[in-house]
């Protein structure tokens, strides 16, 4: 079971000067929700990263912060929220099966069945971190109950 870190929402209060502590951004936030989804950013601010580690980190690619480190948006709106991401993941897996099957058929000249099995298995295994992360991100963007709010940063910084 992937773990959500039990970190509190971003600090606010006297120590933070009453402001939300905003980390230094490594790149500008995409204004398009599609681009923010592709970049695996928070659906509300498009700045905070949805995952703590890169997809190549085989032991940590599933770890998400409980809240957006930038705007405090919850990344798990309700318990068990990401069970629905399994259906999205299944859709991605069918796409991978189909793409690899068609590619082998046309590029390798309809090889033996074992080649299909090995090819599909290898590509599915390699794509697992991406499928997992984009399934969760899609679930959060589609059913998380929040949308892009470009004004949030200005409001928070004025407080
Ligand atoms: Zn955010």
Automatic annotation (TrEMBL):
<protein>
    <submittedName>
        <fullName>Uncharacterized protein (DUF983 family)</fullName>
    </submittedName>
</protein>
<feature type="transmembrane region" description="Helical">
    <location>
        <begin position="114"/>
        <end position="132"/>
    </location>
</feature>
<keyword id="KW-0812">Transmembrane</keyword>
<dbReference type="InterPro" id="IPR009325">
    <property type="entry name" value="DUF983"/>
</dbReference>
<keyword id="KW-1133">Transmembrane helix</keyword>
<feature type="transmembrane region" description="Helical">
    <location>
        <begin position="81"/>
        <end position="108"/>
    </location>
</feature>
<keyword id="KW-0472">Membrane</keyword>
<dbReference type="Pfam" id="PF06170">
    <property type="entry name" value="DUF983"/>
</dbReference>
